[in-house]
From TrEMBL:
Signal peptide: none
Lineage, highest ranks first: Bacteria, Candidatus Coatesiibacteriota
Originating species: Candidatus Coatesbacteria bacterium 4484_99
Transmembrane domains' residue ranges: 22-41
Keywords associated with the record: ATP-binding, Kinase, Lipid A biosynthesis, Lipid biosynthesis, Lipid metabolism, Membrane, Nucleotide-binding, Transferase, Transmembrane, Transmembrane helix
This protein's name: Tetraacyldisaccharide 4'-kinase
One example GO MF annotation: ATP binding
């Protein structure tokens, strides 16, 4: 909870424009420069083989990572890629490591029940387990900063609704120049053109990815309602995902303007939280949340909430066929 509160404060701080905030940001400039120098030097030394030794695995390795803090769309992209690989007769597995593995593992296991998901606090341990399994492709969730593993395809997904300026002056994990080490770039949440402007001059294949709302499903009854049927209705949208603003943006393009209630990322819902949401949305025709939130709610609470609907979206990729041609070439298929 302390980390979540700090995250909210930091997001608010980055959006302020007061004199004191400006002075503070200027004071942080040396740290900003040091972080960029450290990340750049680390990548260059790894690339030159001066430090570290790249582990060559028995399986093909697809990494999906980002350079932004917060949600960029890795999970839906990984689900999309894994499903397509299964249709093609492949046996992918997914590797997750770090603090967020519980939330992500729930989503993968719910949406990809036939795909093995390897979860460990230490990502290297999870990769070793996947390498010894019967899968033929390892998909690493959040693997761009993992420099000691040889990858067949290194995908970086960046948010277009957040400035990519690195911390502590922005919400980026690395400088935008790090994208030159990727094989291809996905731009998610296309709404502000921050990303397109920032990556001008970086010669990598670029794919625009949208998550298009399709239907809502009632949590209690399973009833399905097409998004077009709730246009003009009162809608409350609550979520812990950082991209709630983008979800609202996509809904608004469909003629739906929801009232937003945002919880901290990786939040653990309690009964009191859901009661508050239901009270806030008592005049709404629909109370909607994401699939990630719904899994967390079902995992945390005993009661089935028939008043809540789950939003389901589809992945739409511009030049989708070009991406799969590139991937198949990398996999020697």
């Amino acid at each position: 909870m302390v980390i979540n509160k700090l995250e909210i404060w930091y997001r608010d701080f980055l959006s302020t424009r007061g004199i004191m905030e400006l002075i503070f940001k200027i004071a942080l400039l040396p740290i900003y420069v040091l972080i960029i120098l450290y990340n750049t030097l680390r990548r260059e030394l790894y690339s030159a083989g001066v430090i570290g030794r790249k582990i060559v695995l028995k399986k093909a390795v697809i990494s999906v990572g980002n350079i932004n803090l917060g949600g960029a769309g890795k999970t839906p992209l990984i689900i999309y890629i894994a499903r397509r690989l299964v249709i093609m007769g492949k046996k992918p597995s997914i590797v997750i490591g770090g603090e967020a593995l519980a939330d992500e593992a729930l989503i993968y296991k719910a949406q990809l029940p036939d795909i093995k998901v390897f979860t460990e606090k230490n990502k290297k341990t999870a990769i070793e387990r996947a390498n010894d399994s019967s899968c033929d492709i390892i998909i690493i969730d959040d693997g761009f900063q993992l420099l000691n593993v040889k990858k067949t395809l290194d995908i970086v997904i960046i948010r277009d609704d957040v400035s990519p300026t690195p911390i502590p002056l922005g919400w980026g994990r690395e400088h935008i120049s790090a994208l030159k080490y990727a094989n291809c770039i996905f731009i998610s949440k296309p709404s502000h053109n921050y990303a397109l402007k920032s990556i001008h001059g970086i010669s990598k294949p670029i794919f625009i990815m949208r998550q298009v709302p399709e239907v809502i499903v009632n949590a209690g009854t399973g009833k399905i309602v097409n998004i077009s049927e709730i246009v003009g209705r009162k809608v409350l949208l609550f979520s812990m995902v950082p991209s709630i603003g983008y979800i609202s943006y996509e809904l608004s393009h469909r003629g739906i303007r929801p009232f937003l209630v945002q919880f901290p990322d990786h939040y653990r819902y309690r009964d009191v939280d859901i009661k508050l949401v239901l009270k806030t949305g008592r005049s709404a025709d629909y109370i909607i949340t994401t699939e990630k939130d719904m899994l967390s709610i079902k995992n945390s609470l005993k009661k089935s909430h028939k008043e809540i609907w789950t939003l389901k979206s589809k992945i739409d990729i511009k030049n989708e066929s070009e991406f799969w041609k590139m991937l198949m070439k990398k996999l020697n298929v």
